[in-house]
Amino acid sequence: MKKEIPNLILAPMAGITDLPFRIICKELGADTLYSEMLSSTGLHYTLQKNISLVNSCKQDFPLIIQLFGNNPKHFASATKIIDNLPKIDEINKSSTPRRPEGIDINFGCPVKKVMKQDSGCALMRDPKHAKKIIAAVIDNTSLPVSIKIRAGIDDVSAFDFLQEVSDLNWKTIMVHGRTFHEGFSGDIDFGLIKKIKEKYPKKEVIANGGIFTPETAKEVFEKTAADGLGIARGCFGNPWIFSQIKEYFATGTYTKPTLEEIKKVALRHCELIEEYKGKGNVVEMRKHLGWYFKGFPEAKKLRAEFFQVENLEEIKTILAKF
Ligand SMILES: Cc1cc2nc3c(=O)[nH]c(=O)nc-3n(C[C@H](O)[C@H](O)[C@H](O)COP(=O)(O)O)c2cc1C
């Protein structure tokens, strides 16, 4: 039977979906958390070292680690490294790499640096090669494997791609309903996502793209009949979007956070960065602060200050001015 409330997934975002932000999203209702993309080649050559890029903890659950790259051998060794990490009930340290609940493969990234290495979305041009990559991951783990694709690239549609790889035993597909050429704007192809679910009913299909409010979440869910919704930029400054969507599906309305709640979560986010990434990394909060307080007139005045913060104390001083 079709679920009435879809799984709500924090979509992978380089530079954003680190451990502190994943914890914040989990606390505010995200059902599944994707890591930032991790280079399979980096893991292959530097072995264990690179994996610290995906530090995790018990709260960071269920976690999907996303890999990108081009070489099936590198994917195989990266998968083995991930598969052999300590299990969640074996970790004691508050922040350490651990065996995730799934491994995802990036076939959607349009960034030049990634495309130039024939990785990310470039792989959709060569479904036969992509198939070798998926097989290399599946053959080296018992974890569920997922793939993330776009609506298409050049003359290769998502269907052409899936035609080649659908017989492999991967479990989940996240479809960013825009083509490579559409980048990050433009309408989402709801019909395409719906047809993918109809054609591959046994695969879990996650619709992604353009979900910025509970209302758009409902529209995407109804128009695609997907099993889950992948939310990326919609949680910039609004990690409440997950709980808001759940409330909206259940009651038809939803609560917006008060300024005090926003301050509380923004401060918690800073504290988590200090705790898990070290005091020096609090500068990473600059962009988040801009997003958390967007729209507040006070924030406009304090914008320049947000972008210069160096530590938690400075952040507290600025927030006290609201
Ligand atoms: C800053 C940023 C970083 C991203 N990094 C990744 C990534 O590491 N892996 C990936 O598959 N997609 C990545 N994406 C794409 C998103 O997961 C998502 O597919 C895209 O933003 C469309 O969803 P949205 O309209 O909800 O933002 C990134 C997007 C943004 C904005």
Number of helices: 13
Would you state the CATH class of the largest domain? Alpha Beta
Uncertain residue ranges: none
Helix percentage: 40-55%
Mean model confidence by pLDDT: 95
CATH topology of the largest domain: TIM Barrel
Number of beta strands: 10
The major beta sheet can be summarized as: 8 strands, parallel, barrel
The H-and-E topology, N to C, reads as EHEHEHEHHEEEHEHEHEHHHHH
Terminus-to-terminus distance: 48 Å
User: What's the assembly state of these chains?
Assistant: single chain
Task: Bin the strand percentage.
Answer: 5-15%
Cofactors, ions, other ligands: flavin mononucleotide
Q: Give the number of domains.
A: 2
Main structural class: alpha/beta
Tell me the strand order in the biggest sheet: 1-2-3-4-5-8-9-10
Describe this protein's structure.
With 322 residues, this protein is α/β, with parallel strands linked by helices. It folds into two domains: 7-251, Aldolase class I (TIM Barrel); 259-320, Putative flavin oxidoreducatase, domain 2 (Non-ribosomal Peptide Synthetase Peptidyl Carrier Protein, Chain A), CATH 1.10.1200. It contains 13 helices and ten strands. It has helices spanning 19-27, 40-46, 72-83, 112-116, 127-138, 158-165, 190-199, 214-224, 241-251, 259-277, 285-292, 297-306, 312-320; strands at 7-10, 32-39, 63-68, 102-107, 145-150, 152-153, 156-157, 172-176, 204-208, 228-231. The strands form two sheets. It has an eight-stranded parallel barrel with strand order 1-2-3-4-5-8-9-10, surrounded by six helices. β2, α2 (40-46) and β3 form a beta-alpha-beta unit. The longest helix is centred in the last third of the chain and has 19 residues, at 259-277. The chain is globular, with a radius of gyration of 20 Å. The termini are far apart. The model has no long low-confidence stretch (mean pLDDT 95). It binds flavin mononucleotide.
